[in-house]
Amino acid sequence: MAKNANTPRTMESNHKVASFFSTLLFVFVSAIIAFPLLAGLTASFRPAREIFQNGMSLNLKVKEWSLHNYAYLFTKFINPKTSDSVAIADSNKYFMWYKNSLILTITTVVLTLLVCYFIAYGMTMYKTKLGNFLFFMVIATMSVPFEILMLPLYQEVTTIGLINTNAGVFLPGLCAASTIFFFRQYMQGLPKELLDAARVDGCTEYGISVRIMMPITKPAFASMAILCAMGSWNNMLWPMLVFRDTNKFTLQIGLNTLLTPYGNNYDLLIAGSMFGIIPILIIYLIFNRYLVAGMTSGAVKG
Q1: Reduced to 3 states, what is the DSSP secondary structure of residue 162?
Q2: Mean pLDDT calculated for residue range 25-51
Q3: Cβ atoms of residues 163 and 102 within 8 Å
Q4: Residue 86 — φ and ψ, nearest 5°?
Q5: Could you tell me if 80 and 89 are in contact, meaning their C-beta atoms sit under 8 angstroms apart?
Q6: What is the model's pLDDT at position 130?
């Protein structure tokens, strides 16, 4: 009599083999993803001459590393017209760009989450005849590339006088279709009986949305906060069109000015880029425990 191939011992052995190969695959993919980050981190401690000679590599010669790039970045820049160490006449622009990016990112994330939450809340909790059509229109905007909308948005921002202002940067993107979609999908998995119970207790519609539903959607807020912060912090194309004054440049635009026809300061560029990762890393560490719960919500129903 032939032995059953699906015995517990055989299944356990197959599970171990599958787990080993999946772990090996994840380690390989993680190494590929982590290499540019580690290479950039090591390059930020090396002089520009060595970067040009040896390229981006994991140079583990710690004795040759120095904090010269960071010290120079935080005190003065290289004048592109003379290519020598001449301090800029006004205050250090790097921290000014850093502050501009922080203010713009925080404002964008807070307003985007609030606007998209209330839009998704209305679409999910209140059924109307046009509800599905409006949601379809919101989702349809996700298929339109930003490059197509860029010129009409620029004309609109120019017409209403928001050029060279923070409002001109974050207002066009407050109603983010992906964020509305995510909030709506998350809320569909929540029990609607909470709303009825709150209304019976005399709670207002505003109180239901803020005091009851908003705390329940913390995982969704955390997930979207990370994604919105990354998008706003790394955004360069639209802010570069809106801002005219160098004192209002964000960090991404400011670092781009280090690449000029007179000289490419890759050592300062890499050091500034690595230091610019810190805010996004802090946001991820703060909201990490809610991230998985928010991203997997609604995957299993029942």
Answers
A1: coil
A2: 83
A3: no
A4: -120, 125
A5: no
A6: 80
For the record, the structure tokens of 17 come out as: 């083999």
pLDDT band at residue 81 under the 50/70/90 scheme: very low
Domain ranges within the chain, ordered by starting residue: 8-66, 93-296
Q: What pairing do the DSSP bridges indicate for beta strands 259-260 and 263-264?
A: antiparallel
Which of the two residues, 6 and 66, has the higher pLDDT score?
Answer: 66
CA distances from 234 to 172, 201, 253, 277 (A): 16, 45, 10, 10
82: enclosing H helix or E strand = none
In order, the DSSP letters of 119-141 are: HHHHHHHS--TTHHHHHHHHHHG
For the segment 215-220, the average pLDDT, to the nearest whole number, is 87
Tokens 């080993």 sit on residue: 20
- CA-atom Rg of the chain in angstroms: 25
DSSP code string of 212-281: IIHHHTHHHHHHHHHHHHHHHHH--HHHHHH--SGGG--HHHHHHTTEETTEE-HHHHHHHHHHTTHHHH
Class of domain 93-296: mainly alpha
Rounded CA gap, 155 and 251, in Å? 25
